[in-house]
Amino acid sequence: MPSSESTPRIPDSVPKFTHLEDKDDVPWIPVRSQRNADGSESHVWEKWVAFSVDPMYLALFAQWDPGMIVRKHGHFSPHVLTVLHGDFLCSDRICGVGTHIELPLGADFGPFRAGPKGVTLYEVMMGDPRSWSDDPDAMTKVLEEHGVIQLPDPPIELPAGLKDLRKIYQAAKSQQSS
C-alpha cells in the first residue's frame, strides 16, 4: 500500500459536479453579442463550471445562438473543445456533434459562424483562458458577408484580478479602420 507521501491527496478535497442543463448551480453569462441583418440580437452564452487560478484553467459550457459569429482567435494557453449539440463553421470546415478541436498554444482558429440551430460546446483552457486575435480583417469579412454588426462585449468578472482583454482587440480593430 502506498504511503501518504507518495500521493498528491489533499484531505477534504472532493469532486464537484455540474450539469449542462442545471439552471441553479452556475449561471449562463453572455460574453459576445451581435446585431443580425434582421435587427435581432445573438449572443455567445457561457457557463463557467470550473475556473481556477492556481493552477490556472477554465472549463465551460458554451451556447451560441443561431448565426452567431466569433472572431478568429487563439488563447494564452492550450485549448480544447467538443461540439455537443448543433454545429458551426470554423473557417471553411463544418464542425458537428462529436467534433473535437485541439488548439495548441500559439495557434488560432476561426472565424466561426454558428449553424441554423446554434451550437453547444464543452471547452477547456489549460492555463490563462483569455483570448488574443491579430486578424481583424477575417472578422470584418464574415460580418459584412452576413450583414452583422458586432456589438460591445457584455461585461464579465474574471477571478484573481485578471484583466479582460476583449477591449484590446476591439481597440486594435478600430485603430486599423481609422
What this model shows, in words?
It is a single chain. With 178 residues, the protein is mainly β. It has a domain at 26-148: Jelly Rolls (Sandwich), CATH 2.60.120.10. The chain is 13% helix and 39% strand. The chain has helices at residues 136-146, 166-177; strands spanning 29-35, 41-53, 56-64, 69-70, 74-75, 79-90, 93-95, 100-103, 112-125, 131-132, 149-150. Strands 1, 2, 3, 4, 6, 7, 8, 9 and 11 form a 9-stranded antiparallel sheet that branches. Strand 6 and strand 7 (93-95) form a beta hairpin. It is globular.
Set out the fold topology.
Blueprint (H helix, E strand, L loop, with lengths): L28 E7 L5 E13 L2 E9 L4 E2 L3 E2 L3 E12 L2 E3 L4 E4 L8 E14 L5 E2 L3 H11 L2 E2 L15 H12 L1
Antiparallel strand pairs: 1-2, 1-11, 2-3, 3-9, 4-9, 5-10, 6-7, 6-8, 6-9
